[in-house]
Amino acid sequence: MxxxxxxxxxxxxxxxxxxxxxxxxxxxAVLVIxxxxxxxxxxxxxxxxxxxxxxxxxxxxxxxxIGAPVVFTTVAYHKDLADAGTFxxxxxxxxxxxxxxxxxxxxxxxPVEEADHLLVKxxxxxxxxxxxxxMLTGLGVDTTIIVGNSTSGCVRxxxxxxxxxxxxxxxxxxxxxxxxxxxxxxxxxDMDSKNADVMPSADVLAYLDGLATDxxxxx
Length: 219
What we know:
- By secondary structure, the chain is an alpha/beta fold.
- Helix content is 41%, strand content 16%.
């Protein structure tokens, strides 16, 4: 998709009422989607996220400083793959993500700390078949900052379910990645138009740091 195509599509969407900004809320959570070794380390499922990991870690650390939840997801199946369903048939690559294998471990460059949460999911969305919706609702979360992979798959599915569940989805564009550059760019554009506010991670960090300042001032 060329810049001319993007500009033309953006103008069209603006004119018909897409692409409105939701803005940030007051109670964020970070959803770190599928940053497991079977995807972040070279192999059949590999997505190069070496440049993204420091930016994701910066967001995680900023969220922890204000006591905001950081929720990691991984994908793991039993060896009989009964829990993979038709998704496992459609995308046979995921059949490599088996319980007990190193592939399902979170990349050590993004350490899961004691206060963080780790959810095991079976399907693209972090919400489907997990307790994520009830956990975030119980914590009073109103904003979901979604990072990880893949832009066109699990990030996109999680974003769709987040907005459907009443949250304000935010996608830092430099903290998500895909195997196919075209899929990455098209899905960022489409999410920004329909499901989320897409922005650079610097804007998300400024938001989180602003919440920290506000809380200090209120004390």
